[in-house]
Automatic annotation (TrEMBL):
<dbReference type="InterPro" id="IPR013792">
    <property type="entry name" value="RNA3'P_cycl/enolpyr_Trfase_a/b"/>
</dbReference>
<keyword id="KW-0808">Transferase</keyword>
<feature type="active site" description="Proton donor">
    <location>
        <position position="121"/>
    </location>
</feature>
<dbReference type="GO" id="GO:0008760">
    <property type="term" value="F:UDP-N-acetylglucosamine 1-carboxyvinyltransferase activity"/>
</dbReference>
<feature type="binding site">
    <location>
        <position position="333"/>
    </location>
    <ligand>
        <name>UDP-N-acetyl-alpha-D-glucosamine</name>
    </ligand>
</feature>
<dbReference type="GO" id="GO:0005737">
    <property type="term" value="C:cytoplasm"/>
</dbReference>
<feature type="modified residue" description="2-(S-cysteinyl)pyruvic acid O-phosphothioketal">
    <location>
        <position position="121"/>
    </location>
</feature>
<feature type="binding site">
    <location>
        <position position="97"/>
    </location>
    <ligand>
        <name>UDP-N-acetyl-alpha-D-glucosamine</name>
    </ligand>
</feature>
<keyword id="KW-0963">Cytoplasm</keyword>
<keyword id="KW-0573">Peptidoglycan synthesis</keyword>
<protein>
    <recommendedName>
        <fullName>UDP-N-acetylglucosamine 1-carboxyvinyltransferase</fullName>
        <ecNumber>2.5.1.7</ecNumber>
    </recommendedName>
</protein>
<dbReference type="InterPro" id="IPR036968">
    <property type="entry name" value="Enolpyruvate_Tfrase_sf"/>
</dbReference>
<feature type="domain" description="Enolpyruvate transferase">
    <location>
        <begin position="8"/>
        <end position="428"/>
    </location>
</feature>
<dbReference type="GO" id="GO:0008360">
    <property type="term" value="P:regulation of cell shape"/>
</dbReference>
<dbReference type="InterPro" id="IPR001986">
    <property type="entry name" value="Enolpyruvate_Tfrase_dom"/>
</dbReference>
<keyword id="KW-0133">Cell shape</keyword>
<dbReference type="GO" id="GO:0071555">
    <property type="term" value="P:cell wall organization"/>
</dbReference>
């Protein structure tokens, strides 16, 4: 049984929020601590679900994780790393996508790994074939077991010449975390180059790794025998920033996001300006606001970095329901990321989803029967509704639609939002949102009352 958020819409969000370390970097930097022979310190750590999951998995593997009670900084000491019981690991099946990144570090530190079935947002099939292929190329042996995979390297891990069919963020990180202590040189082509990957490379370089990022998505790693711990301040969460920026636009508000970094958001800021949003950048953050007047429709394609990030799409789609005219969004990273539009349509939005690639470049999903292009006509008045949150970003988009809507919305499944938005209820309160939280009433079987 979870909590219910009752939102009374129509109030512009105004004020300041602070954004801390990125959900898509922090848990991975925590996994990297297993590769060092001295403790690591990670700063700017947000209180989100994926951090809890990785803390627990590290502890199960003998890593001592301590949290500074004032700053929240994490110290991770891997000197007593050990194999965990698979029944304990099983408890984390379905929690997050991070466990797959334990493969290389655990093989290097204790010789083998058991990885539970992955979780994360349900936005497509999300296979791990690239991960398993690169691990096998390093010399790993992978066995499918009930509830997960077991993996070892009886003949050691060796550098390899690798190429990804698509610039996958997770598979690129898998290569980095495995190659840095593998014997010899690894050359990865077709690599992802998201800012969170560059920050992970900075962490690994502090530990003693030798990694060169070349042009054209080529990353070269020279394996080293030993690494130390690191001390690092995590890059801030650009996806959370983009979400609050869209919230300001949708509710006709004005939000200063402390900690936002312009350089990681270039593609988002260009789009924000084109749609009619305004922003001011200073040394400590970015102010996002609705400058008045109608919003403009646009044609948009999600893409790997440096393109428009797929995790920014959903809150921006809500803003596009308020633009005067027809917008098109072509989702090219995940095949099934428009499920959240169903609730927006119930709230009064005019959105159609299509199987065709409605973009300038045909993508991997065009011939495969996936509803991956959306046509949004606006402006439409949104009305309050009952909503059960389907995933992280879709869920945030529902929250901001409800905050802008006429009338009251009743939102369940809000625990999913904690995967990527630290203390979001406190932040909403600080921005003046009108809502309250109650416990969901138990459902009794008919006849038992
Ligand atoms: C925890 C984390 O960092 N999550 C982010 C990460 O997810 P994640 O690392 O899971 O995403 P990937 O970049 O790997 O996925 C991109 C595409 O590659 C496909 N693929 C991936 C791996 C594989 O083995 N086989 C395969 O086909 C996926 O199904 C998807 O279509 O990057 C995504 C793309 O920027 C973001 O939306 C997620 O927020
Ligand atoms: C898809 C996302 O996350 P994950 O990969 O953790 O499911 C996201 O952050 O929007």
């Amino acid at each position: 049984m979870g909590n219910v958020l009752t939102i009374r819409g129509g109030v512009p969000l105004n004020g300041k929020v602070s954004v801390r370390g990125a959900k898509n970097l922090v848990p991975k930097a925590m996994v990297a601590s297993l590769l060092g022979n001295t403790p690591s310190v990670l700063r700017n750590v947000p209180e989100i679900k994926d951090v809890e999951v990785v803390t627990s998995l590290l502890r199960l593997h003998g890593v001592e994780v301590t949290k500074d009670p004032v700053t929240g900084d994490l110290t991770m000491d891997p000197s007593a790393a050990k194999m965990a019981q698979s029944k304990d690991i099983d408890a984390h099946a379905g929690d997050s996508r991070i466990p797959i990144l334990f493969c290389g570090p655990l093989m290097h530190s204790i010789g083998e790994a058991f990885i539970p079935d992955l979780g994360g947002c349900k936005i497509g099939d999300r296979p791990i074939d690239y991960h398993l292929q690169v691990l096998r190329n390093f010399g790993a042996v992978v066995d499918k077991r009930p509830g997960g995979i077991s993996i070892s390297a009886p003949k050691g891990l060796h550098g390899a010449k690798l190429s990804l069919p698509y610039p996958s963020v997770g598979a690129t990180e898998q290569v980095l975390l495995t190659a840095i202590r593998a014997e010899g040189i690894t050359e990865l082509s077709g690599a992802a180059v998201e800012p969170e990957i560059m920050d992970l490379i900075a962490v690994l370089q502090k530990m003693g790794a030798i990694i060169t990022v070349q042009t054209d998505r080529v990353i070269r790693i020279e394996g080293v025998r030993e690494l130390t711990g690191y001390n690092h301040k995590a890059i801030s969460d650009r996806n959370e920033t983009a979400s609050w920026a869209s919230a300001a636009l949708v509710t006709q508000g004005d939000i200063y996001v402390e900690g936002a970094r312009q350089l990681d958001l270039t593609a988002f800021l260009n789009t924000y300006r084109k749609v009619g949003g305004a922003f001011d950048v200073d040394d400590d953050g970015i102010r996002f606001y609705h400058p008045g007047g109608p919003l403009k429709p646009l044609v948009l394609e999600t893409d790997v970095h440096p393109g428009f990030m797929t995790d920014w799409q959903q809150p921006l789609v809500v803003a596009l329901t308020q633009a005067s005219g027809v917008s098109i969004v072509h989702e090219t990273v995940y095949e099934n990321r428009f499920g959240f539009t169903e609730a927006l349509i119930r709230m009064g939005a005019n959105i159609q989803v299509h199987r065709e690639c409605l973009g300038s470049v045909p993508c991997r999903f065009g011939q495969r029967n996936f509803l991956h292009s959306a046509v949004i006509s606006g402006p439409t008045q949104l009305r309050g509704a009952d909503i059960d949150i389907p995933d992280l970003r879709g869920g945030f988009s529902h929250l901001i639609a409800a905050l802008a809507a006429e009338g009251t919305s009743r939102v369940t499944g809000i625990e999913l939002i904690n995967r990527g938005y630290e203390r979001f209820q406190d932040k909403l309160e600080g921005l003046g949102a009108d809502f309250d939280i109650t416990e969901e009433a138990p459902v009794f079987a008919a006849g038992l009352l």
